[in-house]
DNA sequence: CCTCAAACGGAGCCCGACTCATCTTCTGGG
DNA sequence: CCCAGAAGATGAGTCGGGCTCCGTTTGAGG
């Protein structure tokens, strides 16, 4: 049932501007992601921000839900074009790269993966689903260990993405991701 | 050079009380770890807290430095009584268990491992040192992959400990830690 | 146009970290 | 034992950031 009165044009515009501004602010770093600052960037007042988003957290969530959408889509693409365990490897590395986009974004990724706040439940579920798909394909092919759920793996990744520290962090992340990946293959060999 | 005037007795007592109260508060959960609350638990006023610790963070740091001391000591013990890769396995699991002590403590562990704040530099260095020792012993014995530094591994662990979510998180953590561990052994087998 | 619900603005509230002017308590020397 | 005065403790107050509330503005259906 579509709402009888859809939504005013300016409201839609402002909502979009807020999401864009928030994304920008998160990418830029934590310093400039106060609500006042985000509102300013979007050219609205804080009150307007709160009209569209319950809390600051809710805004973060919405921004991130969109990022997660892109990531999940990528998982499907990889799986369609590669052997399952290669698809998983690519996906893990994509996550790392993705976190590299910006400090603020990594913070969000970390939060979404690592916190158990119900706010992120939905995004987490979809992300875990994407990973499950990859892992199951690999398990079926006998190249990956079973028994490790998408949720579990995702949380470890959250930690890794949370590295985002000093220079060189990305190499570290890639390395540790590879170790994790090898651990997943290892289990298949050992029949656990 | 011992300070000419050492430190007043009540000051030493209060400092100890603050550290104890802070630890207690962190273990209890984030809710009760506001500075006012910590001061109250210790039976002093906030001003006193700030006389002893530059910032709230500095207090967290000090509390955690002590935890890290215990952990590092355990690493040595394990290594003395087990084959190197078994010692590493035990140590990794000890970290997970340690994080289980309390939500608040896990937050601290996470922060210390994952943040690059210079405040935790010291603790991080010692922790990485303990891990390096374990890894190097295993590498020398040919049972663990080389090329993964203690710092790198530690940060991944920080992420895992940061799980501390809903029920069942600890099983998840143990599982993913095992995957990580298998990845480390796997590299040795493959000669990378 | 005109109406009015929807949307916006922004001063101000609340809460939590932190400061500082003032009062209290040790302690070492006489 | 006592006193000086330095070390220490206090807690009301400041500040910053998230959030609220209500008076004002604006888009759109009639």
Automatic annotation (TrEMBL), chains A, B:
Q: Which residues form the HTH tetR-type domain?
A: 12-71
Q: Which UniProt keywords apply?
A: DNA-binding, Transcription, Transcription regulation
Keyword Transcription regulation among UniProt keywords: yes
Which Pfam families does the annotation name? TetR_C_43, TetR_N
Q: Which residues fall under the DNA-binding region feature? A: 34-53
- Answer whether the UniProt record assigns the keyword Transmembrane to this protein: no
User: Per its UniProt record, what InterPro entries does this chain match?
Assistant: Homeodomain-like_sf, HTH-type_TetR-like_transc_reg, HTH_TetR, Tet_transcr_reg_TetR-rel_C_sf, TetR_SbtR-like_C
What SUPFAM superfamilies has UniProt attached to this entry? Homeodomain-like (SSF46689), Tetracyclin repressor-like, C-terminal domain (SSF48498)
The name on file for this protein is TetR/AcrR family transcriptional regulator
Q: Which organism is it from?
A: Pseudonocardia ailaonensis
């Amino acid at each position: 049932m579509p709402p009888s009165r859809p939504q005013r044009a300016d409201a839609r515009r402002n909502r979009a501007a807020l999401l864009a501004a928030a994304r920008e602010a998160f990418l830029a770093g934590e310093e400039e992601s106060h609500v006042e600052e985000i509102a300013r960037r979007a050219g609205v007042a804080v009150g307007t921000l709160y009209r569209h988003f319950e809390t600051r957290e809710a805004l973060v969530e919405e921004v991130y839900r969109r990022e997660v959408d892109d990531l999940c889509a990528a998982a499907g693409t990889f799986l369609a074009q590669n052997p399952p365990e290669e698809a998983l490897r690519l996906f893990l590395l994509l996550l790392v790269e993705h976190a590299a986009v910006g400090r603020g974004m990594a913070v969000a990724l970390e939060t979404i993966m690592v916190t158990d706040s119900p706010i992120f439940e939905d995004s987490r579920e979809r992300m875990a689903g994407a990973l499950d798909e990859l892992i199951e394909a690999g398990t079926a092919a006998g190249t990956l260990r079973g028994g490790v759920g998408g949720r579990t793996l995702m949380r470890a990744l959250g930690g890794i993405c949370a590295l985002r520290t000093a220079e060189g962090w990305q190499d570290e992340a890639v390395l540790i991701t590879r170790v994790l990946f090898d651990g997943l293959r290892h289990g298949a060999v050992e029949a656990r």
